[in-house]
């Protein structure tokens, strides 16, 4: 049997067409680089088929202008001007690089994360978007800023066909259990291990 092919087809009564329209919850976790990059690649596909997109960056500083943000804002403008693609909404909160971030400095990052999650819940309930990127969202759960049980239940009961991808290390087991797609990014080597600094075009 080819690797990766499911051994059985679930006897759930769904047609092939219905399975192709099932809402997907994806989680990209692990210590390797590329979790957010893969999520934004999925968002590009979503944009191409016309799904409204919402990006919530939970740990990237609002002061930073990362490459993905600039690209997706340009795609949002392209939709506004020509109707091609889909609208894009971008929210940022947080304190900096995820692997360096620590709770408890001068800003109330816990409150910002909680409000960001509250907005996600409002949007899900209203079925405002077709595709959500919750970037670095595992960290607020890991640090206790957002209740994991609430996240799992909200995502489990989200209405309609809203697709969600969550990125970050330390993904909670209940989230992994709920997810339809889980990818763990491993690390073999990283330039920062050898003292090299992050650089434009590679890290942002």
Automatic annotation (TrEMBL):
Residues annotated as region Disordered? 1-21
Key words, A-Z? Transferase
**Is the Transferase keyword given for this protein?**
yes
Domain of life the protein comes from: Bacteria
Known Pfam families for this protein?
Answer: CobA_CobO_BtuR (PF02572)
Q: Which InterPro entries match?
A: CblAdoTrfase_CobA, P-loop_NTPase
Q: Name one GO molecular function term.
A: corrinoid adenosyltransferase activity
Q: What EC number(s) would the UniProt record show?
A: 2.5.1.17
NCBIfam families according to UniProt: cobA, PRK05986.1
This protein is called Cob(I)yrinic acid a,c-diamide adenosyltransferase
Q: Whose protein is this, by species?
A: Catellatospora aurea
């Amino acid at each position: 049997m080819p690797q990766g092919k499911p051994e059985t087809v679930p006897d759930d009564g769904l047609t092939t067409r219905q399975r192709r329209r099932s809402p997907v919850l994806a989680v990209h976790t692990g210590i390797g680089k590329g979790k957010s990059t893969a999520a934004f690649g999925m968002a590009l596909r979503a944009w191409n088929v016309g799904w409204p997109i919402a990006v919530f960056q939970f740990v990237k500083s609002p002061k930073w202008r990362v490459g993905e943000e600039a690209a997706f804002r340009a795609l949002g403008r392209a939709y506004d001007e020509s109707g091609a693609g889909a609208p894009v909404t971008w929210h940022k909160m947080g304190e900096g690089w995820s692997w360096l971030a620590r709770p408890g400095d001068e800003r109330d990052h816990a409150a910002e994360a909680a409000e960001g999650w509250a907005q996600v819940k409002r949007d899900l309930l209203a079925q405002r978007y077709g595709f959500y990127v919750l970037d670095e969202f595992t960290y607020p759960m890991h640090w206790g800023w957002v209740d994991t049980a609430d996240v799992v239940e909200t995502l489990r009961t989200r209405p309609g066909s809203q697709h969600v991808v969550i990125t970050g290390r330390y993904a909670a087991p209940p989230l992994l259990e709920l997810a339809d797609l889980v990818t763990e990014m491993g690390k073999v080597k990283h330039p920062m291990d050898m003292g090299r600094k992050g650089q434009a075009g590679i890290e942002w």
